[in-house]
Amino acid sequence: MTAAMKLRRKLDPQPAGVVAPPESRRAPVWDRPVPGVGRAPLVWLLGVHGGAGATTLAHVLAPAADSSRRWPGVFERESPFVVLVARETIAGLTRAHDLLRQHHFGFGGPSEVLGLITVAARPGRMPAEIRRYRDVVGSLAGPLWQVPWYEEWTLVEPEQLPVWTPGDPMPEKKRKIDPLAEVPLEMRELGVDIVSVVREKLDSTAAFDEGEES
How far apart are CA 37 and CA 65, in angstroms? Predict the structure, then answer.
């Protein structure tokens, strides 16, 4: 994590035609370390609206923690890495769009966005209108991940769900999994992807630092 703490915040180029959201549509930035976190996470999950699913995902994915709907201020060696989380509704994706624009214009503090997770809002296929809008919003996020609908997850508190930790073996794809007893394959793959993106960022930062010293 040391390299993560040294990460220099580089503003992404502002996409053509994209404007900053009004202040009322921005998420606040923590002016102190994110409260209520008992461990130092590798990555923060920022729920862009209430009910997005960030709290649940932060429990299931051991390297992650919920930033409580604010951008981390990156205090006291906090991770700068953030993944936004939105429900797959027009309202949820619009809110994600607001926060991505906020980030691109430098109003999201010193954090760095790694991507966007969208969480299914209902069973079945994603409506075409949602899919098209998701692609538009995702173009500002970089990596785009999707969490399918798990009916069983709606029946318990997040603390009752299983936890994925890096290094856990992948289950056989053909084997049926009880989502209340084991972390589903899609969630394990999501965790692996996010950790890989963080490692790539850390490796590029270390290479940059070595180049400066030489």
Answer: 7
